[in-house]
Design goal:
2 copies of one chain form a homodimer.
Chain A lengths: L1 E6 L4 E8 L7 E9 L6 H19 L3 E5 L7 H20 L3 E5 L1 H9 L6 H11 L9 H30 L1
Parallel strand pairs in A: 1-4, 4-5
Antiparallel strand pairs in A: 1-2, 2-3
Helix pairs in contact in A: 1-2, 3-5, 4-5
Amino acid sequence: MRVLGVDPGLTRCGVGVVEGSVGRPLTMVDVGVVRTPADLDIALRLHRLEEGLEAAVLKHRPDVVAVERVFSQHNVRTVMGTAQASAVAMLVAARHGIAVHLHTPSEVKAAVTGSGRADKAQVAAMVVRLLRLSAAPKPVDATDALALAICHVWRGGAQNRLLQAMEAAR
Amino acid sequence: MRVLGVDPGLTRCGVGVVEGSVGRPLTMVDVGVVRTPADLDIALRLHRLEEGLEAAVLKHRPDVVAVERVFSQHNVRTVMGTAQASAVAMLVAARHGIAVHLHTPSEVKAAVTGSGRADKAQVAAMVVRLLRLSAAPKPVDATDALALAICHVWRGGAQNRLLQAMEAAR
């Protein structure tokens, strides 16, 4: 399964592509960020982001796009931009017929480190170890996107097996 | 000037097209809502909304798309959907090279009724009068989209004249 993880953001949107399946070693296919200038009109920023994400989807043809589920507990201004960036990611995937799955930050932390309360450094250390990298990709949005993709390979894999078992039992 | 107003929403997204200029009678070109089913995946809802808004933009070729500026004071769940729907509207406009302008709810009320604290009924009554309609379009999202478009014709027109005057004074 090839998963494109998206850590949504307007200024920096993390994109990480991971290939793997439950119980097998994971491979990093690509990682990066799509940046848009803060002084650009919001509509043009969303369009730039769309172009960047579209290019990643066309290049890597993922089976699934995994996006961080946005909550609004945090800073109100940031959340609006994050919600809008995540909308662009979901839209690009849907337009290409690619399944979209959302994972909360604590689901990602739990999947990657074993603890839903892990800090950024612990998540980064596990991403480095699981993908056998020499260092965590910078900026942190890139590493977070890889963590999302890893989370989906494992959680999505478990969900798929459950669905298949339920189908078989009918 | 032809303005396509968008009252953003995932369940009902109001779309209203108004033609006019400052000091001349306004004309309603079209009005309606794009609906997406609440039980559909969020990614697919955003894609349906994109298709609906894209169709409206291609049909009416507006000079400007005016979108309600989303705030997060209100209900947290609703705001996320509204932010995402507004992102889709801005994206569709930007992709077609159409300028996007945002107006706050109180700017719209002030422009249409003269008071930033007007209620829904007052706004609807003024939309009916200004566009010489027999009744306010239903649902209210449709009327609100027309109010946004009217607001932009007047405010945008004033802004443009100011910019032209500043250019001329250089």
